[in-house]
Design brief:
It catalyses: dTDP-alpha-D-glucose = dTDP-4-dehydro-6-deoxy-alpha-D-glucose + H2O. The chain is built from twelve helices and twelve strands. With 339 residues, it is of the alpha/beta class. Helix 4 packs parallel to helix 5 and helix 6 packs parallel to helix 8. The chain is globular. It binds nicotinamide-adenine-dinucleotide and 2'deoxy-thymidine-5'-diphospho-alpha-D-glucose.
């Protein structure tokens, strides 16, 4: 296997962080560059086991900083760009949309411009099923790659905008690209503002778990390592210009997810607190992954095996999430829930 230079943006976040680790271990002959601004969601400590490895490199850069990004691309001549860096939390996009446009739209455009100046094998844009909007509760309806984009939140609108920019750089400049649109991820190092780690951490601390609305909204859950394997496959084997949906048919209502965690931890459902619904709350997401399966991908975790592994990870790594909850996140949480 030849030596390749892979730039991973957002490699200190949840999915990017798992992907960096996966790539450093799986491809010792590749050089993996993690470019991250280290916002509230970025955390370098998760890479302590690989930071001394020769094929891992960290660069602290803002993807919106055109000069810094361009000079890095000129210097390193990357073969692959795998673009995760983003503002990722829907609730934050409802209270403060501007930074979502800045990072997710402008940042993507800066990276696309830099990529077209060099001879890259592939620009992989990591997007989300939320760009398709919402589904009704008919279990036979799924998002396919042909579903029209109808984003409902400022977050998903910023991701859909970046998807369209990626598509346009392929059509206009011939940039080799893929777009992946994955369902909800969960697993180790998931930031405790998101439903699953929030529930685990609060239940472990005997704190109330806020469930939005009636808790009947449905999400389609995928273990983060299955997502990493999908991106690995798409970056190497994906058809030029193609979009791939990523999901493992693990639909659950939010209430089912919360009750599963409470029961696994042996706590009482009295911890559930129904709170005001999220504005514009999408009813249901569900992915049809046929196109990716035809490329050779299949998930290794069921929701049952994945959630058990994840709960165990949070039990074993209390120090990590306690440190995060005690920092800036706490201020956000207090503002969000008026607690
Ligand atoms: P995250 O919020 O955990 O991590 C985002 C990372 O990007 C952080 O390390 C942060 O420091 C970095 N970052 C933010 N702004 C930056 C900037 N201006 N310059 C450089 N780095 C910056 O996000 P995540 O949940 O790991 O999601 C990663 C990507 O995957 C996002 O693009 C998201 O839209 C997409 N996605 C997420 C999910 C999910 O369930 N979490 C599902 C599908 C797709
Ligand atoms: O579908 C992929 C998307 O999944 C990604 O693109 C996003 O980056 C990621 O954050 C995630 O978005 P969601 O909004 O679906 O995830 P979140 O964990 O915030 O919420 C999951 C569901 O749980 C959603 O219906 C809202 C609900 N919820 C969430 C929180 C934080 C609650 O009921 N209570 C809560 O406290």
């Amino acid at each position: 296997m030849s030596n390749k230079k892979v730039l991973v943006t957002g490699g200190s976040g949840f999915i990017g962080g798992n992907f960096v680790q996966y790539m450093v271990d799986k491809y010792p002959e590749y050089d993996i560059y993690n470019l991250d601004l280290l916002t509230y969601a970025g955390d370098l400590t998760k890479h302590s086991s690989i930071e001394s490895k020769e094929n891992y490199h960290f660069i602290k850069v803002d993807i919106v900083d055109r000069e810094a990004v361009n000079s890095l691309f000129e210097k390193e001549n990357f073969d692959f760009v795998v673009h995760f860096a983003a503002e990722s939390h829907v609730d934050r996009s409802i209270t403060d949309p501007e930074v979502f446009v800045r990072t997710n739209v402008l940042g993507t455009q800066v990276l696309l411009d830099a990529s077209k100046q060099i001879d890259i094998d592939k620009f992989v844009h990591v997007s989300t099923d939320e760009v398709y909007g919402e589904l009704d509760f008919d279990p036979t309806n799924f998002f396919t790659e042909d579903t029209p984009l109808q984003p409902n939140s400022p977050y998903s609108a910023s991701k859909a905008s970046s998807d369209l920019l990626v598509r346009s750089y392929h059509e206009t400049y011939g940039l080799p690209v893929n777009i992946t649109r994955c369902s909800n991820n969960y697993g180790p190092y998931h930031f405790p503002e998101k439903l699953i780690p929030l529930t685990i951490s609060r239940v472990l601390n005997d704190e109330k778990v806020p469930v939005y609305g009636d808790g009947k909204n449905i999400r389609d859950w995928l273990h983060v390592l299955d997502h990493c394997a999908a991106i690995d496959l798409v970056m190497h084997e994906g058809g030029n210009g193609e979009v791939y949906n990523v999901g493992g048919h693990n639909e659950r209502t939010n209430l089912e997810v919360v009750k599963t965690i409470i029961s696994a931890l042996g706590k009482s459902e009295d911890l559930i607190e129904f709170v005001k619904d999220r504005l514009g709350h999408d009813k249901r997401y569900a992915i049809d992954p046929t196109k990716l399966e035809q490329l050779g991908w299949k998930p290794t975790y069921t929701f049952e095996t994945g959630i058990a592994q994840t709960i165990q990870w949070y039990l074993d790594n209390k120090e990590w999430w306690e440190r995060i909850i005690s920092g800036d996140y706490q201020n956000y949480f207090e503002k969000q829930y008026n607690v």
